[in-house]
Amino acid sequence: MDRPLAISYIRFSSEKQRHGHSLERQTEAARLWCERNNVQLDTSRTYHDLGKSAYLGEHRKNPDRYALAALLRLVDEGRIPRGSYLILESLDRLTREHTRAGLMLCLGLIERGIRLVQLSPTEVVYDESSDNMSLMMMVVELARGHGESKRKSDLVGSAWRRKKQHAREGKVMTRRLPAWVKEENGKLVLIPAAARAVKRIFTLAGSGYGIPSIIRKLADEGVEPIGGRSAKWSRSYVAIILKDRRALGEYQPRSGRGATAQPDGEVVRDYFPPVVSEDEFTRARMGAKERRERRGDGPRSGRAPAGVNIFAGLLKHARDGDSYIMTKHLSKSPGRPTRSVSVLVNRLADEGAGRSYSIGYNALEGAVLEALTEIDPHDILNGDHKADETINLANELATVEGRLAEVEKEMTTGGEIASLARVARRLDEQRADLVRRLTEARERAANPLSECWGEAQSLARVLATSPDPTNTRLRIRGALRRIADAMLILVVPRPGCRFVALQIIFAGGRARSYLMLHRPASGRRTESWSFRSFADALGPDSFDLRAPADVAEQAGVLASLPLE
Question: For residue 217, what are the CA distances in angstroms to 179, 205, 209, 220, 466?
Answer without folding.
Answer: 20, 11, 9, 5, 17
